Amino acid sequence: MKRFAGRLLEALLTLWLLATLCFVLLRAAPGGPFDTEKAAPPEVQAALEARYRLDRPLVAQYGAWLGDVARGDLGPSFQYPDYTVNQLVAQALPVSLLNGGLALLLALLLGVPLGVWAALRAGAWVDRALMLFAGLGLAVPKFVVAPLLVLLFAVTLQWLPAGGWGEWDNIVLPVIALALPNLAYCARLTRASMLETLGAEYLVAARARGLSEARLLFAHALRPGLLPVIAWLSPALINIVTGSAVVEQVFGIPGMGRYFVQGALNRDYTLVLGVVLVVGALIVAINALVDALRAWMDPRLRDA
After folding, report:
1. Measured at the alpha carbon of residue 261, what is the angle toward residues 179 and 142, in degrees to the nearest 5?
2. Predicted local confidence at residue 46, as pLDDT
3. Which DSSP symbol is given to 84?
4. Alpha-carbon distance 167 to 211, whole Å?
5. What confidence category does residue 38 fall into, taking pLDDT thresholds of 50, 70 and 90?
6. What DSSP assignment string belongs to 207-261?
7. How far is the C-alpha of 68 from the C-alpha of 294, rounded, in Å?
8. Are 195 and 122 in contact, with CB atoms under 8 Å apart?
């Protein structure tokens, strides 16, 4: 119980520091949310600033916003006046979770078997070919991969739509664009970990006693060999979250990444802060789940 309370306090402190830093940086950036309203009469400008508390001192704005967040209210959106940030997040979060979850699942379902296969064929042409493609997958950034996928599968072959949302075929290209770098890293990480595990002394002794390679792999090597992959899930999630901003913009997907980019460009303070808080809370929760999964797979970590 004490450990859980400590983790919860640490998570809340992390989210508070993240929100405070984002609040300060947004206010320090040049420009404001209503710079395009300069032609409006002064009384209209004053009314807008009063409505969104921009006429108050910065400390008062911060205190009022923090109080609203404590009550679960992320505030009104500056650029979407008909919606609150809670409503925008409620619309965008399931979209991003679907894309990100499928991308991570695809990376694991393909990356782990390919990495194990490469480790079992270490030094062979299959191993070299797989690692070559994995290196290319890591080298090409998402803002290059996404347009290339559109050019190939949407424009040239016309197999899939170039963007939009609402049908199953709208999901395919964004998921592939998000998954490719993580798939490549997962394959390389699995290969390296499995090579180290397969060379362990206890497996060499078990092999000498006549155990089959299949039993060695599935009963003794796979679980410890996948521990680094489990630990990698947290940075993989962060990589998907950061990559979604690019992918959602390219494919016109109404997700969290797109709202974050649009909010930052339009100085929509409450929208950016709301997205940062929700994504930060999601990452903290995923980190806790990954730690629990690692402790279940490796008993040595339970008392750490």
Report:
1. 25
2. 74
3. B
4. 49
5. low
6. HHTT--HHHIIIIIIHHHHTHHHHHHHHHHHHHHHHHHHHHHHHHT--SHHHHHH
7. 36
8. yes
Q: What is the CATH number of domain 95-257+292-301?
A: 1.10.3720.10
Cβ–Cβ < 8 Å for 66, 18: no
| H/E run at residue 175 | helix 169-198
Residue 234: pLDDT above 60? Answer: yes
Q: From the DSSP assignment, how many helices (H) and strands (E) are in the chain?
A: 13, 0
Ramachandran angles phi, psi of 254, nearest 5°: -80, 65
Q: Which long-range contacts (CB under 8 A, 24 or more apart) does 119-126 make?
A: 119/190, 119/191, 119/194, 119/195, 119/198, 120/194, 120/198, 120/213, 120/217, 122/191, 122/195
Which residues, 6 or more positions from 51, have their beta carbon under 8 angstroms from its beta carbon? Answer: none
pTM: 0.82
Decide if pLDDT at 39 tops 60: no
pLDDT, tens digit (0-9, with 9 covering 90-100), for 78-121: 888 888 999 999 999 999 889 989 999 999 999 999 998 988 88
For tokens 């390919």, what's the residue? 114
* Cα torsion angle, 195, 197, 201, 207, sign: negative
More confident: 132 or 200: 132
Distance of CA 64 to the CA centre of its chain: 29
Residue whose C-alpha is closest to residue 27's, from 268, 241, 245: 268
- Residues 17-31, mean pLDDT to the nearest whole number: 84
Domain assignments of the chain as residue spans, ordered by start:
95-257+292-301
What are the pLDDT digits (tens) for 121-172?
A: 888 888 888 888 888 888 888 878 888 898 889 888 889 988 888 788 889 9
Q: How many residues does the chain have?
A: 304
DSSP 301: G
209 Cβ partners below 8 Å, 6+ apart? none
